[in-house]
Amino acid sequence: MMEDELALVDFTEGELIELEQQIDKLLAAWEIQNLRGTLYRFHDDQHIGDQRRELYADQHPGLDYETLLKSRMVELVESLEGNTLIHPVMTPVIEIDKECKKARAVFSSFGYEGLSIHREAPMAIWSIGYIPGVHVRQDGEWRVLSGVWQRTVKTQMEKGWVRDMQKSNCKPPLTDEQDRNYLGKYAYHKDTARKYVPVPPDKNTWNKYPDEMDEKWKEKI
Q1: pLDDT in tens, 119-148
Q2: Is 131 exposed, middle or buried (0-12, 13-18, 19+ CB in 10 A)?
Q3: Distance between terminal CA atoms of the chain?
Q4: How far is it, in rounded angstroms, from Cα 87 to Cα 100?
Q5: 55: closest CA among 125, 122, 147, 130?
Q6: Which of the four, 51, 63, 189, 190, has the lowest number of CB atoms within 10 Å?
Q7: Is residue 208 a part of any domain in this protein?
C-alpha cells in the first residue's frame, strides 16, 4: 500500500530539488555528530586527538598548512600525564549552509576531570563546557575545520555547585597576561587565554557571516 501511495505523489522538479537538499542536510547533521563524537572518543589524556589527521580538514585555502603540520608533531596537551578527562559531547545545535558544503555547530559537554599530582595537589572537578566549531566537506566527507572544547564553569567535586561554582572560561576585559595568571595552574597550555562563552549558530548565521573562517558568529553581541 505504501509503495502505491508514494507512486501517486507528483512532485514538481523544484519540489524534488528542495526535498533532496533537505535530505542532504539531515544526513550532513548526522555525519557531523558522528564526526565530533569520534573526535572526542577518548578515555585519558594520552589519547586526546588520536585522529587529528583523519578527522580534520587539511585542504582548506584558509588554513595555515605549515602551522597545521607543526601542530601534528607536538603533544596535543602539555603536562597532563595521569589526568582523567571525561567530556562526552551532546545536544548539538547545527546550522548548515544552503549548498550543504559547510556547517557551524555548538555541542554541550558536561564532564569530570581528575587533576594530576604532576601539576598540583590531586583533585577532582566537575566541568561544564562547549565545543563551538566549523565543519566543511572535503572530498565528499565532512571534516573538522576549527573548534575545540572549552570549559566555561567548574567546581570541586566534593564541594559541589552550590559552594564552589567558578566561571572558568568567561572573557572579562583583561589582557592576555592577566588572563593567563587567572587561569594559573589550570591552563592546558602556557599561552592559554579565556574565550567568550560560545552562542549556538542561528538560522541566519551563514547570511550574517558567510566566511567560514570568521569567528564572530559564536560571540554574543
Answers
A1: 556 678 888 889 999 999 999 999 999 988
A2: buried
A3: 53
A4: 28
A5: 147
A6: 190
A7: yes
42: left (phi over 0), alpha (psi -120 to 50) or beta: beta
Torsion on CA atoms 12, 18, 23, 24, rounded to nearest 10: 130
Angle ∠(94,44,42) on CA atoms, nearest 5? 35
Work out how many domains the chain is built from and give that number.
Answer: 1
Per the CB < 8 A criterion, the answer to whether 165 and 153 are in contact is yes
CB 60 within 8 A of CB 136: yes
Q: Residue 57 belongs to a domain with what CATH number? A: 3.10.450.50
- Return the C-alpha cell found at 103: 556547517
Grid cell digits, residue 161: 555547585
Lowest pLDDT segment from 16-30, 102-116, 188-202: 188-202
